[in-house]
């Protein structure tokens, strides 16, 4: 798809996500400003087999569906798989926060260190919130490599430990921080037991398919910077203050009880 067509699809989708009014679209754009990391415009998504993309990955565009249908399509993006190692919290939690992130994004690191732990304590541990991770590597080969490594760590139920190791500190982008030897050491620190299996899984076609599926889902939504989140059907862009997320979770939980 030409980049201009992809950009048009993004704008239409975010208008639909925001509710279709200019004021809401402006608010969404303001949320992204200064608190997110934009993807390079010349780095398109990798090709992905059609079978690897969920039929529900792309919500209908603004002209194709009613607001209620748009909302249902967005809610359907939550996978709610009890065995998903890239998720935290109960599969039947009333609120699902879907996070589209790149491990080389400093704003994603800020969210991981400052905001996620509070959300886990206040909502995940109480059964209100589920967090579902989506790999959205957009900053080059090292982003791609660490995304696959995170999936490989998840195969041994150590995704979140690996996530915390990677985000424990800011690392220079595309300067060798995620070379194969360093990823192996991070996996060791995260408690991945079988490091040879980890490296095999990292290089597997299954890792490529999983990462590509997540990234294509994000592009279909119109994600163009990281981090980007959906709290049920509400978009939150960038490493916003904790209060922004708690307000979105409380609102979504209240709506779910109706």
Question: Which helices and strands occur, and which strands form pairs?
Answer:
Blueprint lengths: L2 H16 L3 H11 L4 E2 L28 H9 L11 E2 L6 E7 L4 H19 L4 E7 L5 H14 L4 H8 L13 H10 L5 H8 L2 H17 L3 E2 L1 E4 L2 E4 L4 H15 L2
Helix pairs in contact: 4-10, 5-6, 5-8, 5-9
Question: Keywords for this structure?
Answer:
258 residues; disordered N terminus; Glutaredoxin; 7 strands; 11% strand
Describe the protein.
The protein has 258 residues and is α+β, with helices and mostly antiparallel strands. It has one domain: Glutaredoxin. Helices cover 49% and strands 11% of the residues. The protein contains ten helices and seven strands. The strands form two sheets. Strands 2-4-3-6-7 form a five-stranded mixed sheet, with helices on both faces. Strands 1-5 form a two-stranded antiparallel sheet. The chain is globular. The N terminus is likely disordered.
